[in-house]
Fold:
Amino acid sequence: MKYLFGPVNSRRLGLSLGVDLVPAKICSFDCVYCEVGRTTGLTCRRGEYVPTGEIIAELEEYFTALAAGRVSPAPQVVTLTASGEPTLHSGIGRIIAFLKERTKLPVVVLTNSSLLGDPQVRLDLMAADILIPSLDSARQESYVRVNRPARECGDPQDLVAGLAAFSEEFGGEIWLEILLVEGLNDSEEDIEALAAAAARIRPSRVQLNTVVRPPADNSAHPLTTARLGEIAGRFGRIPVEVIAGYSGSLSGAGEGKGEEILKILQRRPGTAGDIGQALGLAEPVVARLISELAKAGGIRETIHDGRKYYQINKS
Structure:
């Protein structure tokens, strides 16, 4: 499959079938913390960056094979994501409409919120079940430092207004993700502004995150768990969860999983634990597969925040 990946175990969504709508790295932001790497196509212009018909054809092929028992395990959700910003894809509305007709699985959309001020984008997303938008700053100075947006993307108040408008119109759930970078968007002024923005947006929940994988910019450092816990209490009555860590049960065999590991690492770096969680593999199995892939030259090791990560060896 060219555009589908998984299903993988998501720390937030369970077993998720991913749909990659935009190639690396076309995005409206060039975030300092991005695990995919630096943005090479910085834009807020929408377009059909990959053929909509091909994505729908792959989805049809997948669900036909799933019904026939030729693929497993069965996903619990379908997540529209991208190696850049998924709402840049002008066919996202058609893809969501197809999914709602073809499957009863919940449809989730990840977005950096930069295009939600556009009424057509909001209309395209209206049939989804869950929107997970990002809002890393509600202050211009911090927004520019952390998200490094395309010039035509507007300011953080435009993002907040778009999110608030979508919240008024949307019948599903909104899980607002806030990713905090030490010294860049975690001041008292930043937290106060984010809490006020969240009160205006009225999401179903707020999810606090930090820099947990090797970032695009090595100057991006994570907040401590204790600090995230303190900040979680600043959002009034809105439910808040810290999602910077994840744990779960691991099991299974590793036969034929090397290719799956490469697919995961093509989209973002991961620890051995991340890989195990995504594929349901026990630690010794993951260690063996990683060793085999490293010896073959397919992946390389890097250290971030004292933890060992693996990345595709692009050289």
In short: Residues 246-254 have pLDDT under 50 and may be disordered. Residues 59 and 218 are 37 Å apart (CA to CA).
